[in-house]
Design a protein that fits this description.
By secondary structure, the chain is of the alpha+beta class. The protein is built from 2 helices and 5 strands; from the N terminus they run βαββββα.
Length: 95
């Protein structure tokens, strides 16, 4: 199946504020941050409604290798699905 590229992506203000806040807090020790964008797609538009930061570490010998905290990510994503399930897929109830 081909992937349809959206015509428009709308990033809501809360997402921008969260990303800037996280970067500001951790930029003293890291030069980059990692996060997850959450949203919904409707036709040709994607709305980015929320986000969360994911703890990670870079390999000291190779900065192209990152170690993400997958347990943290899975826990946060599960929580967001329970709280905001309607935004992720309105046709399927969240279990």
């Amino acid at each position: 199946a081909a992937f349809d590229v959206p015509e428009k992506v709308v990033v809501h203000p809360l997402v921008l504020l969260s990303a800037v806040d996280h970067f500001t807090r951790v930029s003293r020790s890291n030069k980059r941050v990692v996060g997850i964008l959450l949203g919904k797609r409707s036709g040709g538009q994607v709305d980015i409604l929320n986000s969360y930061a994911v703890p990670f570490e870079e390999d000291k010998k190779n900065p192209h290798i990152w170690f993400l905290d997958h347990n943290y990510h899975e826990g946060m994503f599960s929580m967001f699905k329970k709280v905001n399930g309607i935004f992720l897929n309105p046709s399927k109830p969240v279990k």
